[in-house]
Design brief:
The complex is a heterodimer of chains A (about 400) and B (about 240).
Chain A (H helix, E strand, L loop, with lengths): L2 H14 L1 H38 L4 E6 L19 H10 L3 E16 L2 E10 L2 H6 L3 E4 L4 H6 L3 E4 L1 H7 L9 E4 L2 E9 L14 E5 H9 L6 E6 L5 H15 L10 E5 H44 L1 H9 L4 H37 L8 H27 L3 H6 L2
Parallel strand pairs in A: 3-8, 5-7
Antiparallel strand pairs in A: 1-9, 1-10, 2-3, 2-6, 2-9, 4-7, 5-8, 6-7
Helix pairs in contact in A: 1-11, 2-9, 2-11, 2-12, 3-8, 9-11, 9-12, 11-12
Chain B lengths: L1 H5 L8 E10 L6 E11 L4 E5 L6 H8 L7 E6 L2 E2 L5 H11 E4 L11 H11 L4 H14 L15 H13 L5 E5 L7 H17 L3 E6 L2 H4 L4 E6 L2 E7 L6
Parallel strand pairs in B: 3-8, 3-9, 6-7, 7-8
Antiparallel strand pairs in B: 1-2, 1-4, 4-5, 9-10
Helix pairs in contact in B: 4-5, 4-6, 5-6, 6-7
The chains are: A alpha+beta (about 400), B alpha/beta (about 240).
Chain lengths: ~400, ~240
């Protein structure tokens, strides 16, 4: 028997039961669509995260308390000493590969404007912070050294606060209450939008570091130091210099682990990519399970079909069909079902991924490899779950099949 | 007879059952369908296998068509024993050498007449164009020209049996095996089908083996083999051969 004739047979048998074929293939459609959707969203998220981190500049370093190896997320964050302003000054003066260093403390506070209030992230920073993060004002001015020295009651706010608290009125020169402290708004930050993990980066306020430690926390330790290396090439050198300096200043003996860590953006980028990659794989695997369930649906219907068509199989065998011909016919039906479902699933998955990426403001990138793999997987599911019913059909004895009622 | 004496090394019979026994089931429930049957059929014969229901005549016919295998004994086609042949070779034998006609027609449902008729050619690997041509010829031969696209439900019983006969003929077999071919038909339509089978035997020289319980239908055959309880009771030429 020729392949083309077997294909024709499979198609005409499936078309004879259009509704059933469609419902049978639905499981595979959903499975493939889900796999592709998850992969596309994962790719989009990864692209956005790495893009965001890259936009911060590859020469940026972050000095944080807590060791690197044992407590990746600062398990004993509070137990290790924070940094001091003298640490900051030492880094700026002693590390020649460092161009800029800035203190950055943060706390969640309540902001009140008239009758409206809102909880937001307040940062106490030294002025070079804005240059390191390459983040400027849309209107007004940045905080400067004189604000820092005076401990001025001045602040910068993000676009979300302008919208929510000032209802889009001009906030420049207006006063707001930050944690019982009255501050004047001197600038509005450039809009940054939503971060990959859904955080609103514009829901933020800044004040001079000095004002922050005196009026908000009453503790002049530095929680985090942002550093800009002299150039991209000198980033590793800067990192080594800071590590050496801090070990010395924090009196860490040879062989002892650091109780601080210097992260560069590549590391963070890698970490983030790993996280999104793991999430993507996990979600796609869960989706793949639904594909297997779809395969079981195909097997179920093919078994019913073989029983229903036992007489047909007997007739075919009587006129000369070999076991292999019958096997090919039923196997191909299962594979055609799976391929059809896979193709529809690819289209639906890509379509949904495109729509969702647009809705979530993620960059859309079609997971071509993923789509191919999902489609191949669907085909494999068709073969695997089609073989058993097809073998059952092919092993029927002609005379018994013919007599089947 | 004269020929047989003149040529002692004559070719073996086309189909030959030798001491064939068929038992279904085992132990207490065992049913002996055939109990040692010897039957030889020559090329070009028109044989009617007669007997009451359950006498083993259908089992013998299935054996002749390679649809079933003997429990004991031997089946030979042109002197070659079929017993040891693999399933695929048996399928090829059914495809090329035999055409089956069943009491219940056994057409594929929801399938047009021409698609039913071309079925054996699909399994013979004949290209589509030639298949359709030959299927059309076979349908014309049984008087169904113009009904190629009709489905079983649109055809009368007699017409359905004609489609089945066309399907049996299309692969140009040597032997037509008919199991109660008129069993589901009224007597007039039955007579038409018998006339068609007779024509195939006389004009195309096909060997026809037909199972029936109806003496009137059997009258069309030239040889009567009567079965009873799994054995051959009598095997003789038809005393009143068709004119």
């Amino acid at each position: 028997m020729r392949l083309r004739d077997t294909l024709t047979l499979a198609f005409s048998a499936l078309l004879r039961n259009k509704m059933r074929s469609l419902l049978t293939t639905l499981g595979v459609v959903i499975g493939v669509a889900a796999v592709i959707l998850m992969q596309a969203l994962g790719l989009g998220a990864t692209a956005k995260v790495t893009g965001e981190i890259a936009s911060m500049g590859s020469n940026m370093l972050v000095l944080m308390p807590g060791g690197n190896q044992r407590q990746p997320f600062g398990g004993s964050f509070l137990a290790v000493p924070l940094f001091t302003q003298r640490d900051l000054a030492a880094i700026e003066s002693e590390c020649d590969a460092v161009r800029l260093a800035a203190a950055s403390n943060t706390r969640s506070v309540n902001i009140v404007v008239g009758e409206r209030s809102r909880s937001t992230n307040l940062y106490g920073v030294t002025p070079s912070w804005f240059e390191i993060r390459e983040w400027g004002v849309a209107r007004g001015r940045l905080l400067d050294d004189s604000d820092l020295q005076q401990g001025a009651k001045r602040c910068l706010i993000g676009q979300t606060l302008v919208r929510e608290l000032f209802l889009d009125q001009d906030p420049l020169g207006a006063e707001l209450r930050l944690h019982d402290l009255t501050c004047e708004v001197v600038g509005v930050m450039v809009e940054k939008g939503t971060s990959t993990f859904g955080a609103d980066q514009d829901d933020v306020a800044f004040m001079p570091y000095t004002t922050f430690v005196r009026r908000i926390t009453g503790d002049d330790h530095v929680a985090m130091i942002m550093i800009s290396a002299a150039s991209d090439e000198r980033t590793d050198e800067a990192k080594a210099q800071i590590e050496a300096l801090m070990r010395q200043r924090r009196r860490i003996m040879k062989g002892e682990d650091d109780d601080f860590s210097v992260r560069d953006m590549r590391e963070i980028q890698t970490l983030m990519s790993t996280v999104t990659g793991v999430l993507t794989t996990l979600l796609a695997s869960v989706a793949a399970i639904s594909l297997i369930v779809g395969g079981i649906g195909i097997m179920n219907i093919m078994l019913v079909s073989v029983t229903e068509r036992t007489r047909e199989i007997g007739i075919r065998m009587a006129v000369g069909a070999r076991g292999g011909d019958i096997l090919a016919q039923f196997l191909l039906e299962a594979v055609v079902l799976a391929a059809f479902g896979g193709a529809i699933g690819v289209v639906i998955g890509l379509g949904l991924a495109y729509a969702l990426a647009a809705a979530l403001a993620l960059p859309f990138s079609a997971p071509v490899d993923g789509a191919l793999v999902a489609f191949a997987f669907a085909l494999a599911v068709g073969v695997i779950f089609g073989v058993f019913p097809a073998r059952k059909a092919a092993r029927l004895r002609p005379i018994e099949a013919l007599r089947f009622e | 007879m004269v020929e047989a004496i003149a040529e002692p090394a004559a070719a073996p019979p086309l189909l030959e059952l030798r001491g064939v026994t068929k038992v279904y089931g085992e132990g207490e429930a065992a049913v002996h369908a055939l109990r040692g049957v010897d039957l030889a059929i020559q090329r070009g014969e028109f044989v009617a296998i007669l007997g009451t229901s359950g006498c083993g005549k259908s089992t013998a016919m299935n054996m002749l068509g390679c649809l079933d295998a003997p429990t004991a004994g031997e089946y030979r086609i042109e002197g070659v024993s079929v017993g040891a042949l693999p399933a695929d070779v048996l399928a090829a034998l059914r495809n090329r050498r035999f055409g089956f006609i069943f009491q219940g027609f056994n057409l594929l449902s929801r399938t047009s007449a021409i698609d039913n008729v071309e079925l054996p050619l699909i399994y013979a690997g004949v290209p589509r164009r030639e298949r359709l041509q030959r299927a059309r010829e076979a349908l014309a031969l049984v008087g169904l020209a113009g009904r190629e696209s009709a489905r079983s439900t649109q055809l009368s019983g007699g017409q359905q049996q004609r489609v089945a006969i066309a399907r049996a003929l299309v692969s140009r077999p040597e032997v037509i095996l008919a199991d109660e071919p008129t069993g589901n038909l009224d007597s007039r339509t039955g007579a038409e089908i018998m006339a068609l089978l007779t024509r195939l035997n006389q004009e195309l020289g096909l060997t026809v083996v037909m199972v029936t319980h109806d003496r009137e239908i059997a009258a069309h055959a030239r040889r009567h083999v009567v079965f009873r309880d799994g054995r051959i009771l009598s095997d003789a030429a038809n005393e009143r051969p068709p004119s």
